[in-house]
Amino acid sequence: MSITVEVRDNLEKAIKVLKRKMQSEGMQRELKHRRFYEKPSVKKKRKQREASRRRRKSRRRFSR
User: Fold this and answer.
1) Which of 2, 19, 24, 48 has the smallest C-beta neighbourhood within 10 Å, fewest atoms?
2) Residues 25, 3: contact at Cβ < 8 Å?
3) Using one digit for the tens of pLDDT, what is the confidence trace for 19-51?
4) Rounded distance between C-alpha atoms, residue 35 and residue 13, angstroms
């Protein structure tokens, strides 16, 4: 998985675009989790919480 951003004139604008792309891909969250070691049991619980949050979000979206 690679994210590419072309820098044409403005470096600050390219950095903003890169940050936006990273956020939409969920990469910042992933980097935050990988910064420190996470025990397998904690990792499993976090994944379950995230999955339940995604399910609730999709149910809210379809119920409207």
Assistant:
1) 2
2) yes
3) 999 888 888 888 888 999 999 999 999 999 999
4) 27
pLDDT confidence of 1, banded at 50, 70, 90? low
C-alpha to C-alpha distance for 64 and 57, rounded to whole angstroms: 11
Phi, psi at residue 38, to the nearest 5°? Answer: -125, 125
pLDDT at 53 over 80: yes
Fill in the amino acid letter for 18: L
**Are 54 and 41 in contact, with CB atoms under 8 Å apart?**
no
DSSP the chain: -------SS-HHHHHHHHHHHHHHHTHHHHHHHHTS---HHHHHHHHHHHHHHHHHHHHHHHH-
